[in-house]
Fold:
Amino acid sequence: MSWLHRLLGREELPEGFAGTLSGDERVLASATVRGGGPVLATSLGVWLPEGRLVGWHLVSKASWGDDALRLVEAEECGTVGEAVLLVDRPPRQLPLEQPGRLPELVHARVTASIRARQRVELPDGGAWFLRRSVPGRDGVVLQVRLDPGTDGDALRAAAPEAIARLKATPG
Structure:
């Protein structure tokens, strides 16, 4: 690490990084996946070993255990009222050689992106309504994530009231 990066509290790009950072994006922590490339936590999100950025607002869950970072990425698949409908992709295990601060930082950034959340129980399941900040953009995004097997029609009926309550929640 160069003296300037140490002075500024920033990390350098690790060898083998396949992505391209935006102009104001900063590397906060990085680690190498066993048998793969680097994983980076930046000011905008988490870079996966294949060089793809997942914004903090699209990481549904991040946890650490058994020497692996476990990420659940959400995919935007439509809208329900003013909220973006999310569907979780399968969990991804990233076994890290020397994790350093990466797992803790990823978890903290995901948690910090959530400004407010509300659980809504529906007849055949439920949904989480979230208000999340989006790095690099002013304002927040409203999101909703259904439990697996929950009926979309029930969600659409409950959405206006849930969104109104979420928007009124401080945070």
The longest helix spans residues 152-168. The chain is about 20% helix and 40% strand. The first strand starts at residue 27 and ends at 32. The mean pLDDT is 91.
